[in-house]
Structures are given as structure tokens and as C-alpha cells.
Amino acid sequence: xxxIALLVSTAAAIVLLTIPSRSQVSSTxxxxxxxxxxxxxxxxxxxxxxxxxxxxxxxxxxxxxxxGSEAIRYRDDGTxxxxxxxxxxxxxxxxxxVGTPRLIQLIxxxxxxxxxxxxxxxP
Length: 123
Known about the structure:
Layout lengths: L1 E8 L4 E8 L11 E8 L6 E2 L13 E6 L4 E4 L11 E3 L4 E5 L6 E4 L6 E7 L2
């Protein structure tokens, strides 16, 4: 029997899970085709990925979001987040967003927040 190791990282701990497997792991989001990178550093008001240099790459339906040294909040329901309302992401957190990246809006909870984004296309 093969075992598959899955590394899960959070701001508090790194956990290694071992999952027994008899077949290849599949997922609706894999394989991923890389489309581009963006860093956003002006998040003092609700900002979406169209603020990225070059905008959102055509065909992107996955965004891997990494939060810098200050926490942010985000929403993807059409309502802009505020510094106190929206889904919080702590400093150092990552989010694998599968959906429509153009709907995501981000805002810093404290000045100087940055976000790094990798865009992908999943079949």
C-alpha cells in the first residue's frame, strides 16, 4: 500500500498528515496551469485583482493568495470588505481560492499589508 504525505501549513504549526492510498489522488482543481503573479501593496481601501499590473490573466479560475506581515480581510460576494468586516486572513496565511478571482476584494486590517497572488487555470 502506498502512502501519500500531505503538508499543511498554518501560522501556528506545520502538520504532516500521512494518508493511505491505493490509487492516485485526484482533485477537481488539479493539474494547475500557471498564468501569472501579482503583488498588491496598496490595500487601504477595498481592492480587487484588477489592480494587478496586467490585471487578472485570461482563463484564471484559481488564485493562491499569500498574506504578508499584516492581516487582511476579503469578500467575494460583491460587497466590499472593511478593516473590520469580511473574512479575516492572518499575517502569514495562505488561501487557495477556486472560483472567479475577479470577484475577490481585499482590504488591510492594519497599514502596510501586502498580498502575493499566483494565478492558475484548472481544467
